[in-house]
């Protein structure tokens, strides 16, 4: 296990001394398996403590961040479905408004170098501003949030525990949200146990065959062990003429980026339906149907998809069986990541 210390002083608990509270912080460790690459996120600039992680967790689950106190980050990012919005093709936000894209899973984000389906956000510490200010999501402003949080006894206490100062600022709020989402790591699936030769990781012949098929046909983009290359690719989906979403080109204005979208991770894919940037496919069978018979040709299509992928019916089943080994119930039901009851 690799381990990054995110805080150098390690004390536990709160001590009351001479009438004022001296807060002593407990460090939080960022763990990941040895066979993984180094995270892209620069942890040397981060002083993360347990108190800060818990503050981020409270903020993530609190509808106080939206204009009318109805929508929290967790409204569209539910833990049990890999922190995405199950059953919603396009995301559903404030006033019942429907957005233009499918909510993304949140996991192993410390390895991402750009965020959103089109990579429109290049630093995780400012990412939260996008949903907060989007008219279809939370329709709020950082100033209004700071005002609400400063009027809340709960948040004054939580911010005090982190900063020895109860004054809430926008920067501290965004940092706390980052410190929660950056800790959402998934690395205990059956696949991981298989790679680590651990108990519970014995693959059946079908799973082994599925892994081989995956490595031949899919892993150039859904690269192990994170199951994403972090790249942008056009996989030949037909353009939805109501949404007219050309993906990465909307950010770079470069024609060569037309119809390219971020390669999503396939970890916990069994639970994150519907699939693709616009949630057009309900099932993994439909996804395979696309890769085997549905690819639309265009100038920016990924070269490895110029020809449909050939898979027999049995091979499709094996591939689907393999994809289920990417499910990590330790992550989906990890109590540290769920709704916080008290503070
Ligand atoms: C109304 C639904 C909704 C709400 C509320 C929402 N999100 Fe999202 N989230 C989305 C959608 C949709 C995307 C993809 C957006 C895009 O590509 O344009 C996304 C993308 C993301 C990503 C990028 C993931 C990646 O791999 O690139 C992060 C991180 C994220 N959201 C965190 C948050 C946080 C933190 C909050 C609360 C401050 C939040 N979201 C609130 C729907 C929502
Ligand atoms: C050329 C790169 C590339 C290859 C090869 C590739 N994918 Fe993808 N995959 C992507 C991209 C990019 C997306 C997102 C596309 C979008 O939403 O527009 C995606 C989306 C998916 C999704 C939906 C994920 C989600 O969260 O919505 C699944 C499932 C998937 N791919 C499985 C596979 C399988 C199985 C194979 C092999 C048969 C494969 N992919 C081959 C790039 C690739």
TrEMBL record:
Residue ranges of domain Cytochrome c in the record: 205-327
PROSITE patterns, per the entry: CYTC
Pfam families xref list: CCP_MauG
InterPro entries recorded: Cyt_c-like_dom (IPR009056), Cyt_c-like_dom_sf (IPR036909), Cytochrome_c_Peroxidase/MauG (IPR051395), Di-haem_cyt_c_peroxidsae (IPR004852), MauG/Cytc_peroxidase (IPR026259)
Places the protein is found: Periplasm
Spans through the membrane: 6-23
Gene Ontology CC: one annotated term: periplasmic space
Annotated protein name in UniProt: Cytochrome c peroxidase
């Amino acid at each position: 296990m690799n381990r990054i210390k995110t805080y150098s002083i390690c004390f536990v608990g709160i001590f009351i001394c001479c009438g004022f509270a001296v807060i002593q912080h407990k460090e939080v460790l960022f763990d990941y398996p040895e066979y993984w690459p180094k995270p892209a996120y620069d942890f040397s600039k981060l002083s993360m403590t347990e108190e800060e992680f818990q503050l981020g967790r409270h903020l993530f689950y609190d509808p106080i961040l939206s204009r009318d106190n109805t929508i929290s980050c967790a409204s569209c990012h539910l833990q049990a479905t890999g922190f995405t919005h199950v059953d919603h093709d396009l995301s559903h936000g404030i006033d019942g408004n429907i957005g233009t894209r499918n909510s993304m899973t949140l996991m192993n984000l410390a390895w991402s170098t750009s965020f959103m389906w089109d990579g429109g956000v290049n630093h995780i510490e400012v990412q939260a501003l996008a949903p907060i200010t989007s008219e279809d999501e939370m329709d709020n402003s950082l100033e209004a949030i700071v005002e609400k949080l400063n009027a809340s006894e709960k948040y004054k206490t939580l911010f005090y525990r982190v900063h020895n100062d109860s004054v809430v600022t926008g920067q501290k709020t965004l940092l706390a949200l980052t410190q929660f989402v950056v800790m959402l790591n998934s690395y205990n699936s059956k696949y991981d146990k298989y790679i680590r030769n651990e108990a519970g990781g014995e693959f059946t012949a079908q799973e082994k065959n599925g892994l081989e098929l995956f490595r031949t046909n899919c892993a150039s983009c859904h690269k192990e062990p994170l199951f994403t290359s972090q790249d942008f690719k056009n996989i030949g989906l037909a353009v939805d003429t109501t949404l007219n979403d050309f993906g990465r080109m909307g950010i770079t204005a470069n024609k060569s980026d037309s119809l390219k979208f971020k390669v999503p991770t396939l970890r916990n894919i069994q639970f994150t339906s519907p699939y693709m940037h616009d949630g057009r496919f309900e099932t993994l069978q439909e996804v395979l149907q696309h890769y085997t018979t549905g690819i639309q040709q265009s100038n920016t299509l990924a070269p490895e998809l110029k020809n449909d992928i050939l898979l027999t019916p049995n091979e499709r089943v094996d591939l689907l069986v393999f994809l289920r080994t990417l499910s990590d119930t330790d992550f989906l039901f990890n109590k540290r990541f769920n709704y916080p009851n008290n503070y």
